[in-house]
Amino acid sequence: MQETLERDRSAPGKSEVFVALVHYPVVNKRGDVVTTSVTNLDVHDIARSARTYGVAGYYVVTPTPSMQWFVRRVIRFWSQGAGAEYNITRRDAFTLIRLAGSLEEAVEDIERRRGRRPVLVATSARPAPDSIAFADLRRRIEAGAGDFLLILGTGWGLDSSLFARADLRLAPIEPQRSYNHLSVRAALAIVLDRLLGSR
Amino acid sequence: MQETLERDRSAPGKSEVFVALVHYPVVNKRGDVVTTSVTNLDVHDIARSARTYGVAGYYVVTPTPSMQWFVRRVIRFWSQGAGAEYNITRRDAFTLIRLAGSLEEAVEDIERRRGRRPVLVATSARPAPDSIAFADLRRRIEAGAGDFLLILGTGWGLDSSLFARADLRLAPIEPQRSYNHLSVRAALAIVLDRLLGSR
Questions:
Q1: If you average pLDDT over every residue of chain A, what do you get?
Q2: Which residues contact residue A92 at a Cβ distance below 8 angstroms, ignoring those fewer than 6 apart?
Q3: B125: burial class by Cβ within 10 Å (0-12, 13-18, 19+)?
């Protein structure tokens, strides 16, 4: 395994948590597999939440070259451009963001950084019989049982192929409620708070 | 006290929680009192989070006529226009939204609906000596100790005049962290989950 030379927030001895926001393959409201657009607010909000809760890296996953160009521009503006001077805390959050053309690329990058493959944790608003409870995943993280990549889908959620490839499927946030349509930004904030928040 | 005739989700016998997103008076990064713009994403995300957690009403507080016009247009699109047909769950969330020209207008509207004044709970990312812990506020809500209006600021947060008028000041979300710059959308999601989420 190759050691990375770049500055890395992640510590070797404990579990690190990573986040991937997937824009392909996800489904639309009819269940078709689609590629969604990257939205500026997803880049910002999730970077800020990730930075607050000590996430080691936030991967924006999109195979679309124009979207990758867009994300690079947004990152550059807030990391080095006028935005970095205007808002220093935003610059700090943006150091967590990395682009990946696919989920596998994100996983490989984490492997390079950490020297081990992370546990892939798919998220969904829909209940599944084999899902892991928040408290159980929190215990695994606290116990240092590997690194974890939380995978969130845009659009109407992750395509089933990603659930098949994930090691774990996290329980939905409020499955007993009649209404459960959180934005991905809100859902990620709640997930991080439940897994990593102070108790 | 006047009874409202319109359909109201709130139940008389228990605590109801309301949310106000304040665009004036808030501060900018230099501490000047300013009026912020209403952003489309705040309207959507907070309505969806509020609806998920059973919030009884979401007040968008802005004194600016052009912003009120904008919010009305967004509400109409998703409640009756093409958006309502495109996304029925969004329409459902949007029934919670009300416009208010000031915080006091929101409070008066809640008084009309509920027949009693809500407890005003200001939120802030900054620690204060007299703030109430999440667990304590959760217990008050579960005990049915009145209705509660959670007040969130846009920009760099609520102006100090609003803290002075509030009955309670909620503790910051992760005060022990070195970085604590959540978006208002993410912060509200976490607040609702801590106060009203399943345990």
A1: 91
A2: A51, B179
A3: middle
Contacts of A56 (CB under 8 A, 6+ apart): A8, A9, A10, A16, A17, A18, A96, A113, A147
The tokens for B105 are: 């207008």
Q: Is the confidence at residue B24, as pLDDT, over 60?
A: yes
pLDDT at A9: 53
Report the C-alpha gap between A180 and A88 in whole angstroms: 35
The 10s digit of each residue's pLDDT in A10-29 is 666 799 999 999 999 999 99
CA distance B19 to A184: 20
Q: Which residues of A touch B195 (CB under 8 A)?
A: none
Q: Which amino acid, A85?
A: E
Residue A128's nearest CA partner among A156, A168, A159, A165 is A168
Q: Which two tokens stand for residue A98?
A: 């990395």
Q: Which residues of A touch B197 (CB under 8 A)?
A: 173-174, 190
Query: Tokens 């607010």 appear where?
Result: A41
The answer for residues whose C-beta is within 8 angstroms of residue B180's C-beta and 6 or more apart is A52, B125, B172, B173, B174
Q: Report CA-CA distances (Å) from B7 to B3, B54, B95, B100, B113.
A: 11, 15, 10, 19, 10
Residue of A nearest to B133 (CA): A199
* A44 with B183: Cβ contact below 8 A: yes
Q: What is the pLDDT of residue B87?
A: 82
As for the ipTM of the complex, it is: 0.91
CA distance B117 to chain A (A): 28
Q: Which residues of chain A are within 8 Å of residue B92 when distances are taken between CB atoms?
A: 179
- Segment holding A162, helix H or strand E: helix A160-165
B151 sits in which H/E element? strand B148-153
Phi, psi of A11 (to 5 degrees): -100, 145
Q: A90 to each of A45, A87, A115, B46, B159, how far by Cα in Å?
A: 10, 5, 29, 22, 22
C-beta separation of A10 from A57 below 8 A: yes
Give A143's contacts (C-beta < 8 A, 6+ positions apart).
A15
As given in the structure block, the two tokens for residue B135 are 């667990």
Contacts for A75-80 with beta carbons within 8 Å, 24 or more apart?
Answer: A75/A43, A78/A44
